[in-house]
Amino acid sequence: MSAIPQPADDMPEIAPGIRRSMEAYWRDLPQLLPLKSRKRRWVAYHGDERIAFGRGQWELYDECFRRGLREDEFYVGPLEPDENSPWEPEEVEATGEGPDDDGRYEMLEEPK
Amino acid sequence: MTAILRRLPFFEQASSVFVQGAAARVKAHQIVAWASLTATNVRTPEPGCPRFPVIIDTGNTQRFSIKASHLRHWAGTESRALFRLGTTQHGGTLFPLHAARLSIYRNQPHERDAFMEMAPYLLEMRKGIVVYPDNAPLAPRLPLLGLRALRENRLHLHLDAERGRVSLRSPDWATWLARWLR
User: Average pLDDT of A74-88?
Assistant: First the structure.
C-alpha cells in the first residue's frame, strides 16, 4: 500500500472563484471538446458563465482582465481531454541533475 | 515558424551564469536558456524584468519548477503573489501549482548568454508552475523547464549532441506539410 501524499509547507488554497470556475469547465469539457478548432483551443469560465473561447491561454486571461474580472474569479482551461480534473494532483518525475563534475555544485554565492 | 533558441550551445565542462549579481554553477551537459516570469496580470515582461537561467530537462515531467528563493531573488516575485491553480505530487509530497507567465529569451545563434533584440517567447502553462519551498529535498537546484511544457506548447526541440547545440522552435506550415506527406 502506498503512503498518503503529504502537502508541502504553507500550501495555499485554490481561491473559491477559481475553483467554481474550474468545476464548471470540468463539467462542460466533454461537450466542448468537439468544438475544438484553431481558433478555439482554450476556454475561459467565470463561475458557471462561459466567457469566451480563444486561440491562446494568455489572450483569454487578457480578455477576462479587460472585462474587469479579478485573477481569483476565473479559470482558463484547454480544450484537451484530461484524465484528471484541474484540482486533482498531477504525478511527476523530476530529475534535472547529473553528477557533480568536480565536487562543487551548489550556488557559488547565495542570493542576498 | 518562430525560432526560440538557435543553435544554443551547451558544454562538456561545468560553467557559470551570472544572475542578479551572483554566480550560479551550471554542470557539464546542462542546457541553459534564459527566462522571465511574471504574474498573469502582467502582459509582457518589461525591459527591466529580471532574467534568470533555466535548465531544459526532457527527463523532467513538470512544466516549470523553481524554488521559492529563486522565485523571489531571480524572478522578482513571491509565490503568494501567484494564485494557486492546482497540485502536483512529487515523491510522496504535494506541491502547489501557481498561475504565471513564463517567457523564454531568444539567444543569438551559437551564444548561450547573449540575446536577440526581439520579444521573448511566451509559453502557455496549462496548470501552472510548481514552486518548491527552499527546504524541500526535491527542490531543483536551478529552475527547470520540463518536457510537459514543450509538449503542451507544441514545440520542436532539436538536439545536435555531436556539436553540443540545441534549437527550439514552434511548428510552421512546412512542418504540417511534411507531416501530412509522410
Answer: 94
Label residue B39 exposed, middle or buried (CB < 10 Å: 0-12, 13-18, 19+).
middle
**Beta partners for B52?**
B35
Find the CB nearest B144 among A94, A105, A106: A94
For chain B, residues with pLDDT lower than 70 are 1
Residue spans of the domains in chain A: they are 15-80
**Cβ proximity of B63 and B129 under 8 Å:** yes
Distance CA B103, CA A17 (A): 27
Report the C-alpha gap between B108 and B126 in whole angstroms: 28
* ipTM here: 0.89
Q: Nearest by CB to A6, which of B73, B92, B142?
A: B92
C-alpha to C-alpha distance for A69 and B128, rounded to whole angstroms: 19
